[in-house]
């Protein structure tokens, strides 16, 4: 933006620092250098993703023989076959897998279930609460809201241990519901985020609907929620990503396939390396399976996610 | 604010269900019930309970037994705890130090070069994958024998480095791996802060003959300070809670070199079933984080902005 106007400035001022000059000339060395830096940042950012793909498409034997090849070596989908349990134990062992049973379809399904339930419930309940805090009149409102906001001060990890004790008492260990429960109802951030938005919806719009005879419940679901479509979508995407990527909490709660989510399954896959060395091709295939849904989600909503970072940053 | 109008709204004709001045008590109760339930049961209660458990001996099988300050006495005398705290602080300093400088650089580059959402999208990409994925990918790329990192080092004539396996390298490696995942997000936060600075300030600076370097220090930095301070508080708090990457890559090793506090707490609770002791260390971490927040806030006056 600002860089686009150097010519308008006419006669250059007497400044002679190198950086000042770089702004003026068209493809100035400073600008070139800056772009080179930027390019370097992007390469470092993206290279690991390429490396996942490159490794996932190779075989372990070839990976060991050509560790520095930049392209996939001995292209094969064996890694994916192992991850989804499509390979016989004998084949798996022969290709450098652990031969243990992994059911990534199951873990994928578990991750989808947990993240979907958490996202849907958390966003809905947080939105209802945010509306009550922003628009309804009731005694003690500001006190309760203050208390909820104070919840922002408690670091996430602090509640994990006591919550685990609670989930155990409820008999929900190794249960998908046990994983979902703590974040299913609200987070202080979600309430805060949506309340900010509801506060800014002009009251007149609401009052007009009320005068037309609509009840407040109806106004909320038919008017306010649709109007808040953009922030609600943003919040839902962020919540989905957070629960999809969560590791510490599911690690505590899930013990068997029935409740294992992808992050935990990945770490177990990594831990059960065969004698011959790590099954990198299989591990990278699994990693790709775990990461791909989020990357696709990002591809679909990139602009929205990128633009939301500024003001959700208070998180 | 909008709250100021209850009387006016209440005085309207009988448009709404309730025109009494007492408000929407019942409806509000229904709307707030699920969230309040979640807040009380899964946030407030666990917080209080965590503090309570820190004064007990508790192995999860028998009821907690009150032991007063025993856990805290034990903690103060536990060399592994102190070492773990030291390791965590070293990690945080490296992680936040590098991350903040690189994020600032990226943010300024973006501000001065391009507004492209595509570029910002690429920069943010690592943030979308989990810590577990990140940890495993770098475990592979930095593998001592086959990792591409060591292949490159070898090609350049250096010896191979056991990035995750040596006591010297493990913490810096984990710190940098986590920089990779978080730096884009931090850069975007700072970028948003930079965008709030009026463009004509840079115009004025240029007319006065200031170069990019001078303008960065004289315009960008002072005006970015409040945002930078908030971002620092946020990232430092997050950094102190490091767990996932350690659990996946080194499991606290070699020889406790990466035994960060949260990992030690996890081991105490789920490895040795000392939930009381684990809770006491959690409380200690909570206190450390609160103190850091307050001190940082005071020092940097995070709330203030020179833009007025």
From TrEMBL, chain B:
It is found in: Cell membrane. It is a multi-pass membrane protein. The chain crosses the membrane at residues 26-45, 89-110, 122-142, 223-243, 275-295. It holds the Pfam family BPD_transp_1. Gene3D superfamilies: MetI-like. Keywords: Cell membrane, Membrane, Transmembrane, Transmembrane helix, Transport. One of its GO terms (cellular component) is plasma membrane. One of its GO terms (biological process) is transmembrane transport. Residues 85-296 form the ABC transmembrane type-1 domain. The keyword ATP-binding does not apply. InterPro entries: ABC_transporter_permease (IPR051393), MetI-like (IPR000515), MetI-like_sf (IPR035906). Belongs to the binding-protein-dependent transport system permease family. This is ABC transporter, permease. It comes from Streptomyces himastatinicus ATCC 53653.
